Batch of 3 targets.
Target 1
Amino acid sequence: MILKRLLDWLAGYWPEWAAYVVVGLVGIMVLIAFFLTMIMVVIWLERKLIGRFQVRWGPNRAGPWGILQPIADAIKVLTKEDIVPDRADKWVHLLAPVVAFVPPLLIFAVIPFQPDAILADLNIGILYVVAVGSIAVVGAFMAGWGSSNKYSLISAMRVAAQMVSYEVPLVLSIIGVILVVGSLSMMDIVNRQSLPFFLMQPLGFLVFFLAAAAEVNRSPFDLLEAESEIIAGYHVEYSGMKFALFYLGEYGHALAASALVTALFLGGGKFPWGALPPSFIWFLAKMVLVFCVLFWIRSTLPRLRVDQFTGFAWKFLFPMSLINIFLVGTELWWAKEMGWSLFPWPFLFLNWAIAGMLVLVWPKLFQLGVGRVEV
């Protein structure tokens, strides 16, 4: 790892504590630069592709093919006036955007882009991801409460309800991966995927992907920012750079979710037919592909109602996550008793057949179809 080599080199000249501080600061700066660059790339990519999906032009004025449009947007929000409501709680109103922006940045610290490209290889990496990812709800609730606005507060309460509802199936869907790997390290999870886990656990992959889409407020799960009901949601009283932090935080969460899907279920930076250096590029390609699927769904499906929104989490995703745990645990026990290798081919076909049957039958059995969305 480059940072490890830098640490060893600095330790020969500086005190150990100073070397650790310098290496930590360098790692943080590299991570922030990568984070902000990727956000600008996916913002441009989303606007261009959604323009194609909706049969219109995307950004095409600022720079060739509109590639400078994210920079133009950043300049615009930086020059906007920072307005704070008179009755707002000033400190809470000020800190809320920071609390909302930081968690997705912290998640990338344990993402294994390739074997020698990870900032911190924690042996409890997946627990760290779950814990840090849950902090974002605090920033949104602070924004709703600190704004002293009833629409913001309604949206903040929706944030809490949404996070509680979808965090449960999200975490339970990861348990199937942990059962197979036997480790909580993100690096170990990637290294054990000789076969991508989405082939071994299609039901767990489906639950994780849909729950992650809801966690990052992507349509059709963007009820927190329903303009026709609560104007703009919890950040309606924000402008300028504070609003930009919320904006960056939302895209950062979508990027973090895409990176987690890539690491947990798509084999990380591994190429399907052998080595393809550098694996870092292959990881980014998978991550961007997952992000494209997210905004493909955004440009296609209408927003869910509140009853559909919560019902989908508790009546569909939650039972599916429990079934996935039972199915994976049973297959692992059976394979161990029979002396078979991990997940032989018959198990793969069985898992896909069960996942397809449940997805088709479960909504009809419990009347969970999202139905027609009334405007």
Target 2
Amino acid sequence: MSKKVISTQNAPAAIGPYSQAIVANGFVFASGQIPVDPATGVIPEGIEAQARQVMTNMKNLMEAAGTDLDSVVKTSVFIKDMNDFAKVNAIYAEFFTTDCPARSCVEVARLPKDVLIEMEAIAVEK
């Protein structure tokens, strides 16, 4: 099995013993992205701004891995409040416009840095 660690300054740095993403056997496995602006370290206020930052971070991470959001085949979205589902879905739809990936979305009790949303993804290499 081939394995390549992906690291980029255009997505939040890992805050623990994990990689931002791993490329293995034609797939990209992206760790959960939280809504931290990688340039400033700022977490935006509100679910819509946080969802947009998460999606931007994931887009940047996929590009660092040599692929893009169109190549994502599965996402897992974790949200603090299921009442925000429609707002998250609207932002998600701005980034995934055709042939959307399979997805799960679950409400969780708490996320790192007390953010409102986190998303992980699996993509195919280009």
Target 3
Amino acid sequence: MNFCHIYKKICGKLSKLVQKTPFWIILHIVLFLGVFLLWSHVFYDFYGPSPGAVEKNIVLQIFEGQIPYVDFECEYPPIALLLFIIPGLFFRALPSYYIAFTVEMLLFDLLAIFLIIFIAKRINISKVKALTAYTLLIAVAASPLVTQRYDLAPAVMVLAAVAAFLAGKNKTAWGVLALGVTAKVFPIVVAPVFAIWLLIKKQYARLFKGIAAFAGVTLLTIIPWLIIDAKSLGSLLTYHMDRGLHAESTYGSFIILGQHFGWTSVNWDFSFGSFNITSGLADNLANASFYIMGAILLLAYALFIYQLRKSGKNKDVKSNSQVEQETVLIRYVAISVLVFLLFNKVFSAQYMAWFCPLIPLLNIRYQNLIVALLLIAGVFTIYIYPFNYIEFEYYENLPVLIMANRNILLIIVFVLVFIGRKPQGKNAQTYNINNMIRT
């Protein structure tokens, strides 16, 4: 009896504690500055190379007066370079630079916590459930790579753009989205979602102002290169256009799996800073990937139009049409990001951070299953990189099978998000009421 009483008391206190934002802030500070830094120190001191080395070296070149894209080849867009420079203003040697970079990513992570709370309240879902899912995804799916690469920053920029858009801050939303695009290209797939929303609602003036804000912010970020050497930015575009088929991509992992079963044969090629594969099939898929991705995106946008129109015609006074539509918008933002992730020709391990701020805000069936599958996919990703990447490069059986299964799990997640809808009938009403009470 005493044990049961103590257990209930602990659960009661914990239940109250998780309702408070400082709890999540402290938890994430410990995660980033404790667990992730310790991981990096222990693992990379033994295996190398040191995290932050690439970013630090770029910063040193810039501080020496060299201009990216003009004086040296650089694969990173302008806002990414700014993110690299900020820690370099304080430290220019490892590991101090990496620690400062980790703090920078932590600040984006903490911003994501506040944005998730804001959006969760707006669409009537449990903030505790959303923050729990986000924490698990950051800890496992994104993994310590979230502090070793900058991909969390554009992911949070997407989330911030969505939050601003839902709050009616149209120009801010488009401006922040432009920052995300000029940090990492993938947020561009969210722009049509915003445009469709405004077109369906016949808010043409807001659409024009939003596009103008997007174009203005984009222009401001690239204007130094337009002045110095307008052709220099072309090298950034051609760098990514000329890349081959990444071995970790959905296409690449399945081709390597096919080689494992003797169905095809590929050669490996280390170029553009990544492990790529070459063959007739691989090269054709690399060239076709843009069109495949584009076709799936067009299908998603068409279904988004249908869903918006359907929800707009719902005259049921018991339903909250605005909340329903905003829930649909968030789902199609997540779908768009997943399409870019899965059907692009490049898929590095750090890209797993892209969906972490969005998935917890889905209000659909299979939500718990989606998070669970992503956590398993995260474990598979960590197994490959950093622990067994060399073995994967040599096409050893287990890493090849695990990589293919990682991508299969992500495809299953994509399908579940694509077909997912809110709980129906009485269960849906009970679900929403319970969420509002917990929030």
